[in-house]
Specification:
Elements: E1 3-7, H1 14-25, E2 28-31, H2 33-45, H3 53-59, E3 65-70, E4 73-78, E5 81-82, H4 90-100, H5 103-119, E6 122-126, H6 129-133, E7 139-144, H7 147-160, H8 167-183, E8 196-199, H9 205-224
Parallel strand pairs: 1-6, 1-7, 2-6, 7-8
Antiparallel strand pairs: 3-4, 4-5
Bound molecules: 2'-deoxycytidine-5'-monophosphate (DC).
Length: 226
């Protein structure tokens, strides 16, 4: 089984590149942020403060999160319902970030992520994949890009989905969220010591995919070709 970890801040291009690499390698792409977004969505629907560890933890027994693969595309189910793009709003980004700092939430989602990597070859994107979820990953990439590049990408993504947003708001929310994600006590979003840090600010997605594909073959060629 091939295990590839891609971590990094929001808007760095993780999902675009991980999807392209997954289809090229014929393995599955796991978007772990969707799991935290789903918990955030449930917490919001119950009008609970996403920063309250006690109140959020009390909701966990009511939550069943499943990742399913439909025609190779990941779908997230909350208590049997496919949430689709409802978890992709800027508000859900902030809810996901808040609940992700709660240890009970991270523990709740740990097995779902590890089980997938036990059963399938995966390329998994998140914040703590190389450090906590798959510390023995074959390849670890920490993807970064400048704040402005990341905000522009996120802004374009939201526009394409028909979600209304201002560039300045997207930029400041991204910076606030990254600061929270990278400085939290539990599983902060930092590069693993053995990760390759890859800044793709000035690259097209195609260029980045080529370079990362070559890196994967170099680091884990025998597993990738198996
Ligand atoms: O990748 P994303 O933007 O969908 O992630 C949403 C939030 O979830 C992010 O701000 C932090 C949290 N997250 C995390 O703590 N660990 C992960 N492996 C993935 C996401």
């Amino acid at each position: 089984m091939l295990k590839i970890a891609i971590d990094g801040p929001g808007g760095a291009g993780k999902s675009t590149l991980a999807k392209a690499l997954a289809s090229r390698l014929g393995i599955i792409y796991v978007d772990t942020g969707a799991l935290y977004r789903t918990i955030g969505y449930y917490v919001r629907s119950k009008n609970v403060d996403p920063k309250s560890a006690e109140d959020v933890s009390a909701l966990l027994p009511e939550i069943r999160v499943e990742l399913k693969y439909e025609n190779g595309v990941q779908a997230v189910y909350l208590n049997g319902e496919n949430l689709g793009d409802r978890i992709r709003t800027p508000e859900m980004s902030m809810y996901a970030s808040a609940v992700s700092a709660i240890p009970a939430v991270r523990a709740f989602l740990l097995d779902t992520q590890r089980d997938l990597a036990r059963k399938h070859s995966v390329i998994m994107d998140g914040r703590d994949i190389g450090t906590v979820i798959l510390p023995d990953a074959d390849v670890k990439i920490f993807l970064t890009a400048s704040d402005e590049c990341r905000a522009k990408r996120r802004y374009d993504e939201l526009k394409a989905k028909g979600i209304d947003a201002k560039y300045e708001d997207v930029l400041s929310e991204l910076i606030t969220r990254d600061r929270a994600d990278s400085t939290r006590e539990i599983a902060p979003a930092v590069a693993a010591p053995d990760a390759v840090v890859f800044d793709n600010s000035w690259m097209t997605p195609e260029e980045s995919t080529e370079k990362l594909y070559a890196l994967i073959l170099e680091k884990a060629g025998n597993v990738a070709r198996a």
